[in-house]
Specification:
The protein is mainly α. The protein has a single domain, classed as Growth Hormone, Chain: A (Up-down Bundle). The protein is built from 20 helices and no strands. Helix 1 packs antiparallel against helix 11, helix 9 packs antiparallel against helix 16 and helix 9 packs antiparallel against helix 18. The longest helix has about 40 residues.
């Protein structure tokens, strides 16, 4: 290829990449933002209107009914992560994921008319069923469109923008709560109804704008599609879909690195979910009133943009930094969690700063772990399996984050929950160090011609 042709090819690559960015990422951001809002807005509903939620549904006091409501979401969410990937491949992303969003939007509408905590708990379980399709599906789609050197930053933009958008749920929910008393409904009921309407509308947009895997990328010309698939082939040789069979599932499930990424993801999501569900209560314990506790959580997500984008860019651009970035953010989770939970009550500013540090570490590590998992494997069937497994363990983290923060331990700083978070992230640190050493050893052997990594010539782990 001549120098002029190389320049033209590079210019075309940049143009096509931007086209993919603008068509794929914004729609996924919108869908996942409403997903995060719909699964975590219980904390806002519970705090609004002087805790009418607890009074009307019977979740007040030291009973664990609120924890039951939160945790039931994750049971079907975890169980149906992997089966959802079969549906995605059978029906395509637009129909499968768009329908999932519309259906859970109707579930949200139903939650607005719940008369007791049992009904709300059952609807939360159905919500988990439909939401199980989105996150692994989104992670799979992103990993299919970009070479490995571009994955971490795209994952960060997708996730952190979604998380930031969802943080406004507290502000918007506070506005919806002012409908308290209209049509005989409480403010928390109006919150669920309004969010349900918004969710159904977003699902409708997905039917129109969401794209599928590159080989089905009809928004691209044939030449543009060829550029995308050529880049993927050169990077990891898996641009063409391969069937996900029972034999492959067995093989993939026996690989240790798949389980490492899943467990590391669990520790990170436990911290993120705990803050999503309990930050208003934590702020109340610090001495802020109900309105302040609903509003003051949003700035922590603005801060999270900074470490997430920096770590994502470093992980993609500088060799052998993916594991170190994950270790750095795990340390931030541990330090931040200790600060907001264990410092004396008089040190309110330092405790508040701990929320920023923990939120930044958790929200940075979610996309970084997903990206490191994606760049360490080949084959679309394996991507589907590993995405589902990792996100399923994220659901386990959600269960831990929503059940181990006991109401009776609130004044003591939720010791059971916070020490579990710190312990799991210590495990992430040591596991990451072990994985870095193992990957480095495999790379050295592959370079000496002593075997292939992922059954591909020239494929090496990015550490």
């Amino acid at each position: 290829m001549s120098g002029i042709n190389e320049v033209k090819y590079d210019e075309n690559v940049k143009r096509v990449t931007r086209k993919v960015d603008w068509r794929l990422i914004p729609m996924l951001i919108l869908m996942y933002a409403i997903s995060l809002i719909d699964r975590t807005n219980l904390s806002v509903a519970r705090t609004a209107n002087d805790n009418k939620f607890d009074e009307e549904l019977g979740t007040d006091g030291d009973n664990n009914r609120y924890s039951i409501i939160t945790v039931l979401f994750f049971v079907p969410y975890i169980i149906f992560e992997l089966p959802s990937q079969f549906g995605l491949r059978a029906f395509g992303a637009r129909l499968w994921l768009g329908s999932a969003v519309v259906l859970w939007g109707f579930v949200m509408l139903g939650m607005g008319f719940a008369q007791n905590w049992q009904t709300l708990a059952a609807l939360r379980a159905i919500l988990g069923l439909f939401e199980s399709a989105l996150f692994p599906g989104a992670a799979f789609l992103i990993s299919c469109w970009y070479p490995r050197k571009e994955l971490a930053f795209r994952n960060v933009v997708f996730y952190i923008t979604s998380a930031l958008g969802s943080s406004f749920a507290k502000l918007i929910g506070f506005g919806f709560s002012h409908l308290d008393g209209r049509a005989g409904l409480s403010g928390w009921q109006w919150m669920f109804i309004m969010y349900g309407i918004i969710t159904v509308a977003i699902g409708g947009l997905a039917y129109v704008f969401l794209v599928d895997i590159p080989s089905k990328g009809t928004f691209l010309t044939e030449r543009e599609r060829e550029i995308v698939m050529t880049r993927i082939e050169r990077d990891r040789a898996d641009s063409v879909p391969d069937p996900l069979t029972g034999a492959k599932l067995k093989t993939y499930s026996l690989e240790l690195k798949s389980w490492f990424f899943a467990v590391a993801f669990m520790g990170t999501t436990m911290s993120s979910y705990a803050l999503a569900y309990f930050m208003p209560r934590i702020l109340t314990i610090m001495g802020f009133n109900n309105i302040e506790s609903m509003l003051l959580g949003t700035p922590t997500y603005f801060w999270a943009i900074i470490p997430a984008l920096i770590c994502g860019r470093v992980a993609d651009r500088i060799p052998n930094m993916r594991g170190l970035m994950i270790i750095f953010n795990a340390i931030c989770i541990i330090v931040g969690t200790a600060m907001y939970s264990q410092l004396p009550a008089a040190q309110r500013a330092a405790r508040f700063a701990g929320l920023f540090i923990a939120t930044g570490g958790g929200n940075a590590n979610v996309p970084l772990i997903l990206a490191w998992q994606a760049v360490s494997i080949r084959a679309q069937s394996k991507r589907a399996f590993c995405s589902a497994l990792t996100v399923a363990f994220g659901g386990v983290g959600g269960i831990l984050g929503s059940t181990l923060f006991f109401n009776k331990e609130a004044k003591a700083g939720y010791p059971t929950g916070v020490f579990t978070i710190m312990g799991l992230n210590c495990l992430t640190i040591f596991g990451t160090l072990a994985m870095m050493y193992w990957m480095s050893s495999k790379n050295k052997k592959a370079k000496r011609g002593e075997g292939l990594i992922e059954d591909a010539e020239g494929f090496f782990y990015q550490i």
